[in-house]
Design brief:
The chain is mainly α. The protein contains 5 helices and 2 strands. A two-stranded antiparallel sheet has the order 1-2. The longest helix has 24 residues.
């Protein structure tokens, strides 16, 4: 298979999953357990993505300037600091750590 065939196949699969989602009756999604799981699953997937992108380097773990930068960003978000301040602050932390190491 060529790269474009794989991309086309993936696009068709995603379209199929989206179509299957539209076929689920709304009554099934109104169940409290299903609603709670779907809400929590979104947050869990985002947290997993952040963890993998922060600590991952191929098949191994890598502790570098990204970890303190994400920790600073999380702390600032906990203090409800605006996004426009959080991103540069985390970038400065990462840059300073890379400068001195």
């Amino acid at each position: 298979m060529t790269t474009w065939q794989v991309i086309l196949l993936a696009a068709i699969c995603v379209l199929g999953l989206k179509a299957a989602g539209w076929m689920v009756p709304p009554k099934a999604l109104d169940h409290p357990t299903i609603a709670r799981v779907s809400d929590l699953l979104t947050a869990a997937l985002l947290a997993a993505l952040i963890g993998v992108q922060t600590l991952g380097a191929g098949q191994s773990l890598q502790l570098d300037a990204r970890l303190p930068a994400v920790a600073i960003a999380a702390g600032l978000y906990a203090l409800r600091v605006p996004f426009i301040v959080v991103v540069p602050a985390a970038a400065v932390v990462a840059a300073l750590i890379r400068l001195f190491t």
